Amino acid sequence: MYKRVLLKLSGEALAAGAGFGIDAVFIHKVAAEIATVHALGCQIGIVVGGGNFFRGVAQQAIDMDRVAADHMGMLSTVINAIALQDAIEKLGLFCRVMSAIEMHQVAEPYIRRRAMRHLEKGRIVIFAAGTGNPYFSTDTAASLRAMEIKADILLKATSVDGIYTADPKKDPTAKRYETVTYNDILRLELKVMDTTAVSLCRDNNMPMMVFSMREEGNIARVISGEQLGTIVTP
Ligand code: UDP
């Protein structure tokens, strides 16, 4: 079992089947799975996405300035973080939201040493607002925070059960990789996460597991050390 993990939850995943907003039933299931592994002694940091509300790149199509759109995207991750914190706290756990954009009334500012202290004290930490910078993604934020908190592994929960040779929703011949390297992802242009996030993990030797959170229990299984989906090695 891992001692400390960084779990990346995409916004889309929190919307479950709806595609937009937060699925109230699903977020409580996610919180319950996190509570199960937390009870076993794993320290858990979480980076949440915001794509279920707002994606910077997509808004450029309606002629929005990219920086303005990215600011909106980062704020949407804060909405998800607060919802997840609420669901986790309802289970009697201690949970802190730390935001990369300062907003003292709703979240603590992200201070690495303070984040480490929360984790050591057994508090679950949700990292909100991505990296705090436009032109980045929450995948990059997840890679960065994973390294900063010295996580054993980056666990990327998505709606697909691993990394495939092609998009399995479009290509029925697509095959799933058991293991793959970051260099393979870059060379073969596999759609896993953006290249900034990939190269950050590669250059700093951060392993990653990409798995589906659609099936109940998967989050608990991977944090407990079971291999699901695809393992990415540096
Ligand atoms: N974003 C950003 N900087 C960051 C992280 C996120 O500008 O460091 C913005 C960006 O517009 C992005 C949006 O926040 O589209 C939501 O994040 P993301 O698309 O990564 O969420 P996910 O796909 O995981 O739901």
Automatic annotation (TrEMBL):
One of its GO terms (molecular function) is ATP binding. Residues 3-212 form the Aspartate/glutamate/uridylate kinase domain. ATP binds at residues 8-11, 51, 55, 158, 164, 167. GO terms for biological process: 'de novo' CTP biosynthetic process; UDP biosynthetic process. Pathway: Pyrimidine metabolism; CTP biosynthesis via de novo pathway; UDP from UMP (UMPK route): step 1/1. SUPFAM superfamilies: Carbamate kinase-like (SSF53633). The keyword Nucleotide-binding applies. Keywords: ATP-binding, Cytoplasm, Kinase, Nucleotide-binding, Pyrimidine biosynthesis, Transferase. Signal peptide: none annotated. The keyword Cytoplasm applies. It is found in: Cytoplasm. It catalyses: UMP + ATP = UDP + ADP. It is an enzyme of class 2 (transferase). InterPro entries: AceGlu_kinase-like_sf, Asp/Glu/Uridylate_kinase, Uridylate_kinase, Uridylate_kinase_bac. Pfam families: AA_kinase. Its EC number is 2.7.4.22. GO terms for cellular component: cytoplasm. CDD domains: AAK_UMPK-PyrH-Ec. Inhibited by UTP. Catalyzes the reversible phosphorylation of UMP to UDP. Belongs to the UMP kinase family. Homohexamer. This is Uridylate kinase. It comes from Granulicella sibirica.
